[in-house]
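Could someone model zinc ion with this protein?
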Amino acid sequence: MIAPGRAKRPGAARPLLDPPSPDEVASCPFCAGHEHMTPPQTLVLPEEGDWKVRVVPNLYAAFDRAEVVVHSRRHIRSIADAEEDELELVAEAWRRRAADEPGHVFPLLNEGREAGASLRHSHSQLIWLPDPAPPRARPRAETVFERNDLVVACPWASRVPYETVIGPIEPEADALGSARLAPALKLLADVVRRLHRLEGQVPLNSWLERSPQDWRLVLFPRLNVLAGLELGAGIYVNTVPPEEAALNLRAA
Ligand SMILES: [Zn+2]
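Reply:
Sure, complex below.
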């Protein structure tokens, strides 16, 4: 439900990422020099010299397997602050770990405590699900812009303000084998920078959504707290129409 006139605009009472505490970096297990604070790595990239992206097991008993992909050796708190070469290695890490450990890999990232992140250092998660995630068809959407055979768009049925999808213009089956995955991650970082300019460092979720014929990265900003109506009835009251979100993101 799009309700632009309803109550306050986003930003009025949104949960922001809280500022770093003094010992955040000192106690961060994902920073360079703190490798002993994690379980032994399953992959580092590049394989020679100082690592830029590091993959370690995540001990969630609920799943077949779970791993964390650390996006940088520097203490950055958002994918928005990752360098392009780091994002290329993140895409390579997703691809290689999925190839090395067969199964139903679901890549996702959470930023901000309100979005489910327990550690602030920018990272993504690879979770091997017991069954494939439900296939999702490409949503009809308002285009923000196109670049490198990829389209950035805000779905007409956006559930939350600035919900955005990033995927190939022409449907493509194999996301993790695609040369477009790294450019898509760079576009995700670009859109998150635009979102930060518009709304500050809001918490967000992102994930790789797939159907047998197609894929896309979904950006799901958490400007509003999801409550009973959303969770119980599946009704999302979105105060920013997708055409306005697309216009704002394009201009930001
Ligand atoms: Zn760190």
